[in-house]
Structure formats: C-alpha cells, structure tokens
Design a protein that fits this description.
The radius of gyration is 32 Å and the shape is globular. The protein folds into 2 domains: about 45 residues; about 120 residues. The chain is about 25% helix and about 45% strand. The strands form 2 sheets. It has a 6-stranded antiparallel β-sheet with strand order 5-6-7-8-9-10. The chain has a 4-stranded antiparallel β-sheet with strand order 1-2-3-4. It is of the alpha+beta class and about 180 residues long. The longest helix has about 35 residues.
Length: about 180
Amino acid sequence: MISDRGFGVRGSHNKIEAGKLAYAACCATALAAVSLDVVPAERAAARPAVTKVERLACSLGTEDNQARIAVEVLNGRVHRFAYYSKWKPRTCSMEITRGDAYSTWLDQGATTAILLLEEMGSFFIDHGQGRYHFTFSDVDRTRYCGMDGKMNGYITVRRASPRCELDGLMEHGPVEE
C-alpha cells in the first residue's frame, strides 16, 4: 500500500517537502541555464588567437653551387627556417624551429637570437622593412654539412624578391673528393 505521505501535498510536512523539491528543481534549472551561457564563453576564450602566417623563400646560385632559405613567420616573428646549400659534391641542410629541443630563442625588439645547443653556434635574425637578415655565427659545419669548420656570414630574404642576398656562407673550405 502506498502512502500519500512524502508524495502528496497534504499536511504541513508534505508542503515543506514539496517546497524544498520545487526550490531544488528551480536552482538546478537556473544553474543549468547559467552553465549553458558560460560554456560558449569559455570555449571562445580557449580558441587560439588569429595567427598570421607568412612564408618566404629565396635562392641564389647555380645547380651545382647554390644557397637557399625558406622562412615561416607567425605574427611577425620567425617561427622556423630551413637553410640549404650545395657545393658539388657536398650539401648542407638544416632546419631550426622555435621551441625545438636543439635551440633556444630570444626575441629582443627587431632582433631574434638563436643559440644552438651543445655549442654548435648561433644565429641572429634582424627583421623589419620587408626583410629577414640571418647572420650565422660559428655554426658547426660538421653537424649540418659534413665538412670541417664553422659557418659565418649572412643570408637575407626579402618579401618582394625570389633572389637571396648572401655573404660568407658559401666560402669554400677544404673539401676532399
């Protein structure tokens, strides 16, 4: 037999219980409505900001003796670059990415300094006025090129030109054939 005590609304005890249930239902509904409004705002805040990506590339030289660089810029800062050179029969290739395990990047105004780990050299990137000027400083040729010595010099890539400006990087060191 079912008692109407606890399910009905007769009597003062049942009225209090019914009021508590109605209040709890009202609060649950209000909280659900508020959380529905908050979730999209939280998701909007979690969305990444709009990223401006720019890719530049240039080359200089002939098939057997060339240098080239490709640069990816995110929101005005170099994010990564790849340098390639060929001195027949040797090639040199490197890709350096911001946040990788092999380099440390420091931005100071219009200059970015990159220190390669294990004392393998450094790069300085001067950016502005539609160009990115990469200075190589004592970059280890053995690791990246398979040749003795250090790479010192610069390469510049410009937005409006497929041709690089280059000095020092293609200096021929001792190469045994």
